[in-house]
Structures are given as structure tokens and as C-alpha cells.
Amino acid sequence: MKIAVVGATGLVGSMILRVLEERNFPLNELIPVASERSKGKEITFNGSKYKVVTPDEAIALKPDIALFSAGGATSTEYAPKFAEAGTVVVDNSSAWRMDPDKKLVVPEVNASVLSSDDKIIANPNCSTIQMVVVLKPLHEKYKIKRVVVSTYQSVTGTGVKAVDQLNNERAGIEGEKAYPYKIDLNVIPQIDVFMDNGYTKEEMKMIQETNKIMGDDSIKVTATTVRIPVMGGHSESLNIEFENDFDLAELRGILAKQDGVTVVDDPANLKYPMPLDAHDKDEILVGRIRRDETQDNTLNLWVVADNLRKGAATNAVQIAEYLLKEKIVS
Ligand code: A2P
After folding, report:
1. Which of 7, 150, 154, 202 has the most beta carbons within 10 angstroms of its beta carbon?
2. What is the structure's pLDDT at 277?
3. What value of ipTM does the predicted structure carry?
């Protein structure tokens, strides 16, 4: 099994390499790929050194699977070229997510939609991933009518430049800016660009991607996405209205049984999920589970996950693992 990691020098790409190592992914050849700027740079993987190559050089090596995390423009240009060479692409960018011919996959929710016809598979937005894993079992049991989500997102979701901005501001150093405003000691209610309807693109991604992954356009979602000066992970406040009433103890049991979810909910002992706890973990942490007392059949909860891991790298590697397990790629 030959695996290419496109964007291997970036934040998500280097996390993909770590996750492949940790999970003992069965590969016998690794091809780290980045831009012309990084060509020849050495990457250490499982104790061996590998030289970074360009996308064109990687295509010529005919990898079985390519895990892409090098931005939308690189994916738009190169994913079809890899696919044409016989490589199955798992793409982290937003380039292919809403293409009706491409599958958008969170393994715990909808891995079964994948088949050998899928040559480019999209990995959802980080904020969407951690939300749908929680929504899925609740929708099956109680049928969701509407979700109101507000996010508190880590700077790592923006990339290396944003992490540098926060660190520089904390150290009092002038440097390049990833955001239009100071992020340290601040909260920025804008993620990605604004659309004509007044929502940001990140908010629209959460809405549209959720419907596509859940395979149900009847679920109404409205979102406010916010950047905060934190690095360990994204947090989300969810208000969920169901068609049917629920028993809170039973609902907790359903969440506790959900693959990929850990319930951390013990207010008496001040236990609830926080980004410092989610950091470097693959699990999605859920807590503050309580009834919305202002409306029937409605729930409030709080969801935290490491956006570089389950929100990006881990999800992509889990898709690749599924492709092998089901012999979609062999
Ligand atoms: P490079 O380091 O050579 O610029 P991040 O989002 O953390 O900044 O990472 C972006 C990743 O995408 C990096 O690995 C970067 O490589 C890679 N990348 C950017 N543009 C291209 C391109 N045209 N071809 C291949 N990789 C690219």
C-alpha cells in the first residue's frame, strides 16, 4: 500500500503523518507531498526519512491512496489528476464537498455510502464533523427538527500562520497576520468570507454539509461560527429540537454508546469538556447535557473535539482505513 500525503509540511498534513504512525496504518511506502518550495525537505515517519516531492512527481509514483490537505486550489487542480492515475483521493479541503457526484464522509455516520466508484472522497469541515457524530444517534432515535449551533473555534483551524499570529501577539512580537484583527484577548465572529445572505461561508458549510452527511434535508440547521484565542480544539454549543420527546437518562446512554464519543458530564464535580482536555485526543467530548426548559422536546449540550485530529486528520485516516477494510482499495 502506497500512501501519499499532500500538504505533508502543513498543520493538518503533519497531523495525518502522526495519526498514520499511531494507528499503525498498513502502508509500505509513504510519499510526502508539498509545494515546489518544500521539494527535497526531509520528513521523518516511523523512524525513517522521506524526501518531500511535488504533486506531479507523486502522481508518477502512482500511490494507492492520497490524503490531501493543501488547500482548495491544490485539491481542485490535482485531485482529478491523481484520480486519473488510479489513486483514490481523500480530500480535506472544501473543493469537492458539495459536488453531488462526490461522497462526503464521517465514518461513524455514513461510511456505508462508499464504493469502488468513488475516486475523490471529501472530508467534511472540522466543525461539521464533531457535530454530526453527536447528532446521528439522536436523529435515529428522536428525529431532529432543528439545530441551533454556535461555535468557539481554535486558531489551529486556520493553519500555521494563525498559530504564529496568536503566539506573536502573546509575546509582543510584530508579525504576519492571518486574521483582520488581533486574536489574542479577542473573539472574532467571522470564519471564512461573508456570503450575500449575511452568513459566513463556514456557517453555510455547517448547514449544507450536515444535511448531506445525514442524508436528510429536512433537518434545519442555523449556525454562528466564532474564532477564539485557543489552540486545543473547537467547542460548540448545540440546541437541538426533536420531533419526539426524550428521557434525559436514556439520551445520555445513547450518546455514551456512540462510536467516537465520550460523555464528560458531571456538573457536581465541575466536569465538562474543554479544549485543553480534547487536545491530542481522537474522541469527541460531550457534556452540559440538559433540557431546554423554554421549549418542548429540546436539548442543550456542549461538544468539544481536537479539530486537527477528529476534525481533519483522524477522520481522513479513518476513511482510508474503511477503504482497506472493505477492500474498496486493495
Ligand atoms: P508548503 O509547505 O510547501 O507550502 P497549512 O494550511 O498548515 O499552512 O499547510 C498547507 C500545506 O499545503 C503545506 O504542506 C503546503 O506546502 C501545501 N501546499 C500549498 N500549496 C501547494 C501546492 N501548490 N502544491 C502542493 N502542496 C501545496
Report:
1. 154
2. 97
3. 0.97
